[in-house]
């Protein structure tokens, strides 16, 4: 890991620079814009390390409203998840993240390639399922971050604003307010 020039990032009070990379990876879950699924059983896709019980797997599937769709943990996922919709793939990645019990979840444009109805379902599940978890959400759809505790606006890689959404929206001159009102 590249050492920081200034500042630090801590998870549970521990500076990540002092963590082994395997420990850091265990505490983070990244849900990318293009959800990653593997050829094989649903069980393997949810829990590649085989640590979770069937009850835990079913509980995660129920939380993301996919239990009825799949029917069995042996449901065969095709290469790259081609036999499920993009929204279902994203929900399966959310279920996988739930099972990992990570302290920090990074959602990188997690709803960029889906319809608005599925977007709303995924946003609802993210809010419900990751309550009490630090969520870093990278988004261009601004409505997906309006319920966040804080919003960080970057411009050319530099911090332009960082505050509560209500505070940023109340300032008509803020970059965030201007972005919201222009969409």
Give a written overview of the molecule.
The protein is an alpha/beta fold. It has 2 domains: 10-139, P-loop containing nucleotide triphosphate hydrolases (Rossmann fold); 149-183, no CATH class. 38% of the residues lie in helices and 18% in strands. It has helices spanning 21-27, 42-46, 54-63, 67-70, 86-100, 116-129, 165-170, 175-182, and strands at 10-11, 14-15, 28-31, 40-41, 76-77, 104-108, 134-138, 151-155, 158-163. Helix 3 crosses helix 5 and helix 5 (86-100) runs parallel beside helix 6 (116-129). The longest helix has 15 residues, at 86-100. The protein is globular. The mean pLDDT is 88.
Helix content: 25-40%
- Uncertain segments: none
Mean pLDDT: 88
Strand ordering within the main sheet:
3-6-7
Give the biggest sheet. 3 strands, parallel
Number of helices: 8
Task: Examine the coordinates and then state which fold CATH places here, giving the name of the CATH topology of the largest domain.
Answer: Rossmann fold
How many structural domains does the protein architecture include?
A: 2
Question: Which CATH architecture of the largest domain?
Answer: 3-Layer(aba) Sandwich
């Amino acid at each position: 890991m590249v050492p920081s020039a200034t500042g630090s990032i801590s998870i549970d009070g521990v500076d990540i620079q002092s963590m082994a990379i395997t420990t850091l990876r265990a505490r983070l879950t990244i849900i990318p814009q293009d959800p990653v699924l593997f050829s094989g059983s649903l069980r393997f896709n949810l829990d590649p390390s085989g640590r979770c019980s069937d009850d835990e797997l079913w509980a995660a599937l129920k939380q993301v409203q996919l239990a009825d769709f799949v029917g069995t943990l042996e449901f065969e996922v095709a290469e790259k998840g081609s036999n499920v919709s993009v929204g279902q793939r994203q929900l399966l990645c959310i279920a996988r993240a739930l099972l990992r019990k990570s302290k920090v979840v990074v959602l990188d444009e997690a709803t960029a390639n889906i319809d608005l109805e599925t977007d709303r379902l995924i946003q609802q599940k993210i809010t419900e399922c990751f309550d009490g978890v630090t969520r870093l959400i990278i988004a261009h759809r601004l409505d997906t971050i309006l319920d966040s505790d804080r919003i960080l606006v970057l411009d050319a890689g530099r911090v332009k604003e960082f505050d509560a959404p209500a505070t940023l929206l109340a300032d008509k001159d803020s970059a965030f307010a201007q972005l919201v009102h222009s969409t």
